[in-house]
Amino acid sequence: FHHTIKDVLQKTQRLAEVLKNLVNIAMLRLSDRKLKQNIRELRFATKSKHPLLKKFAESISPYAWSKMEEEIKIMKKKSYDFVLNKETSTYIIASRNTTYRLKSDLTACTCDFFMAFELPCRHIISFHIQENTEIPTGSFAEHWRNECLEDDATVIANRSSPIGV
């Protein structure tokens, strides 16, 4: 923009022509601004991460995040009631056909997703969102972390039960 004005002012033109060119440049810039605003308003909505999940999402691999997004889709269709069992330090989550147990420190769940991937499942995510707390980065299996390849992280295969049930 400034380069264009410099070109207009450096040319040996009459004052009326310079003013006309400057007004044309200003009008062009204003119409361009309106066009860009219209484009922004019409742009399709993109998937944005929940603010409480952003930091965690950035700390894990894209594949792991895609798996968690599937859980989030399921979670959005349901609401969960968490009942604390003080004796076992677990939350009981009743589903249609099954009852799940979630560790009270939110590091493990008995659902199939957590057992298979050791990533935060819909139950853990839902609890964090209900309590308005972030999922701590580094609180789940190291092999999903972005820096895993640089850190020589070890992969624990086939843990039998994360809650000890």
TrEMBL record:
The keyword Cell wall biogenesis/degradation does not apply. One of its GO terms (molecular function) is zinc ion binding. Keywords: Metal-binding, Zinc, Zinc-finger. Transmembrane segments: none annotated. InterPro entries: Zinc_finger_SWIM, Znf_SWIM. Residues 100-132 form the SWIM-type domain. The keyword S-adenosyl-L-methionine does not apply. It comes from the Eukaryota. PANTHER family: SWIM-TYPE DOMAIN-CONTAINING PROTEIN. This is SWIM-type domain-containing protein. It comes from Daphnia magna.
